[in-house]
Each structure stands twice: as structure tokens, then as C-alpha cells.
Amino acid sequence: MNLSSLGFFRSLRKDNSQFAVIGLGRFGRSVCSTLHKFGYEVLATDIDEKRVSQALTEQITSHALQLDSTESAALKEAGIFEFDTVIVAIGNYVQESIVTTLNVKEGGVPHIVAKASSEVHCKLLHKVGADHVVFPEYEAGCALARTLTKPSILDRFDLDPDNSIVEVIVPDEFHGKTIADLQLRNRYGLNLLAVSQDGKFQINPDPYKRFERGSAMVVIGCNKDINKLPI
Ligand code: ATP
Predict the structure, then answer these.
(1) Superfamily for domain range 150-227
(2) Which residue puts its alpha carbon closest to atom 12 of ligand 1?
(3) Superfamily of segment(s) 18-139
(4) 75, 67 in Cβ contact below 8 A?
(5) What residues line ligand 1, using a CB cutoff of 6 Å?
(6) Which one Pfam family would you cite for this protein (predicted)?
(7) With 80 as the cut, is the pLDDT of residue 44 above it?
(8) What's the pLDDT score for residue 169?
(9) Ligand 1 pocket test: which of 53, 93, 94, 97 has the largest number of ligand atoms within 8 Å of its C-beta?
């Protein structure tokens, strides 16, 4: 295990956002490189020495260590338990992913994000203490199906399985009508958050503003109500 990075991480102030990524598969590497590009300090780890050196060579992180995350002592020694957020990016090795998540939880890390590769894996990760579980293949499939069937939905943020914030193209039949005319809240159960104008969003728009064909609007509401929009 290369411990040269440890002094640096131990010296970081507590209120800095520090991330540790365990597992350098495609998912872990993309998390690492994006955090690194955004200027965050990331400690990347993997059991495979080659993946660790590759991460350093390709500069997707400035700090990387080889360790077996199923060994709690190795995680402790690497200072992983002192991180604010640990991302367990081991999707294809369910046992290793569960044991690692449990270790990190027992080590007292306040925020654990874990990658699942199946629904059962998802459930197990929650049971052993993951605060947030991502299931990228499933999420990407749902997103693709939505885009194919509802191309007017430009962007979507799922608040929970039943409620979302969506950016949609203003439906044709809304063109020329004011927000007050349409009574989005009464008729559709939706709250309008913003309307686009000349490429910029106007937040909490004036109720007498008229919708224009081709512009975008952002609404919040339950998915059933969002599906009732004539888009
Ligand atoms: P893919 O790369 O196929 O998209 P993924 O990103 O979920 O999938 P995995 O195939 O699950 O990645 O591999 C994640 C990484 O976890 C691998 O580089 C593997 O070496 C590493 N790994 C597996 N077991 C351990 C362990 N016990 N400790 C640390 N790292 C591990």
C-alpha cells in the first residue's frame, strides 16, 4: 500500500468537502475525474495496483492508494473513515461492495454513496447503511425510455419515486395564454417555478405573463399530474 498521500489527507481541515472513491471501474473513474476537474480533493482506492497507477498516470485524481476495502483495518489506516463522503463504486462484486459499505458505515463516515448493480444489491446497500444508492444502468434505462416517449421533457429531477421537477417545452395549446388563464395549480396540480425567455429563465414568473410556443417551463408536482400535461 502506497501511504505517501495519507499525511496530506489527514492535514485537510474538517470543513473541507473531501471525497474518497473505492473502486476504479468505469463508474468510480468517472466520479473521480469529475470531482477532480471540479477542483475537489479525491482519494481514489482500488484493490488492483494497476488501476491505482492508471488513475494517477491519467490524472483523474491526485491521490490514489491500493487497498482491500473489505478489510476495515486497511480503510482505517488509509484515513477513509475521516472523509465526509465515501463513494463505494464496486458494482460487479456484490459481496465486496456490501462488506465495504458496512465497514465504512461502522467507521463512522457521515455520508456514504454506493453503486448497485441490481435491485437486491440496492436493498442490501441500504440495509448496511448506505445513505444514497445509485443504480446507473437502471436509471439510464428509465431516462432513455422517458426521452423516447416524452421528447417534450427536456430535463427532469426526481425528488422521490412519485414527485419531480421537470423542464418541458411549452405545449402548443398553452401558446398565448397567461399563467393565470391556465390555472396550472388548480387544473393540473402543478406549481410553475420558471419560464424561459430569450434563453434565460424567469423564476416565479408574473401570473399575467403569456406563454410562448417553443419556450420552456419548469414545473414541480407529482408524476401523475405531470403526465397529464398536453405534451
Ligand atoms: P464497470 O466498470 O463494469 O462499469 P463498475 O464501475 O461497477 O463496473 P466494477 O467492475 O464493479 O466497476 O469494479 C469496481 C472496481 O472495484 C474494480 O476496479 C475492482 O478492482 C475494485 N474492487 C473489487 N473488489 C475490491 C476490494 N475488495 N477492495 C477495493 N477495490 C475492489
Answers:
(1) Regulator of K+ conductance, C-terminal domain (3.30.70.1450)
(2) 25
(3) NAD(P)-binding Rossmann-like Domain (3.40.50.720)
(4) yes
(5) 22-28, 46-48, 51, 68-70, 89-93, 96, 115
(6) TrkA_N
(7) yes
(8) 92
(9) 93
Per-residue pLDDT at 149 = 84
Q: Within 10 A of 102 (CB to CB), how many other CB atoms are there? A: 20
Assigned C-alpha cell, 19:
471525497
CA-nearest of 27, 110, 105, 120 to 72 is 105
Cα 197 to middle of ligand 1, angstroms: 45
Residue with cell 462488506: 99
Residue 24 Cα: closest atom of ligand 1: 18
Record the pTM.
0.77
Q: How far apart are CA 225 and CA 39, in angstroms?
A: 39
Q: Distance from the CA of 108 to the center of ligand 1, in angstroms?
A: 23
Residue 45 CA to ligand 1 center (angstroms) comes to: 10
User: What residues have CB less than 8 Å from 226, skipping those under 6 apart?
Assistant: 164, 166, 190, 219
- Residue of 22, 30, 46, 77 with the most ligand 1 atoms within 8 Å of its CB, for mutation: 46
Structural domain boundaries of the chain? 18-139, 150-227
